[in-house]
Fold:
Amino acid sequence: MAERPYIVGNWKMNGTRAMLPEARAIDRAAQRNMKVEVAIAPPFTLIHAVHREAEQIGVGAQDCSCDPDGAHTGDISATMVADSGAKFVILGHSERRSAHNETDAMVAAKVRSALDAGLRIILCCGESEATRDKGEAESFVLNQLRTSLPETDNAAEKVTVAYEPIWAIGTGKTASLEDIEAMHGAIRALLVETYGEEAGPAVRILYGGSVKPENAREILSLSNVDGALVGGASLSAESFLGIAVAASEAEEA
Structure:
């Protein structure tokens, strides 16, 4: 069984210091809801500031370079991410794969770099609508993971998988409950195959793709859905905390 539900906010390219009150509100509410683990990944420019504000929530980054240092203008290494106060990093998000041409091999290299720097990882996977329409969604997603999942001890402490169907990210569309459960079940089987009967069931699998307070409880009640990776709804403390509350209610049900 995986740990308590994990609700992670991905702020993407949103936020200035004016957003710090939202982070404070999320942190204070998380202290009152210990049944759920809450974290946010702000832009690089806010990691240190949010880390200083946070007493309860986890703080992470949205990406890192696969290189430890060097002449890479504009890049941020995993060591720099850790030095800023981040404890985890989101890797392989579809927006990085598409807009920055990140391959599975590049994602795998970033995973190794992040783990070497002592960061936990949230490894993203997901298919396009065209891939799903061709009936190839499961094989596509599992291949992404086979290429990128690290060989590591204590996998449940270091690795979280986030399944985000690309066509549902920021579109208002959500995969059907049956499709979510089926994909998460396939991912769980791969995690057991990769990490064994003890560690495999303990690695958390998050769902992402237009998760909102209104649909969170039914999604988070599904088998092998251990939390959510939340985009737009995480920019407001009210909506994000609504998802955290739904997670605790799903856990109690």
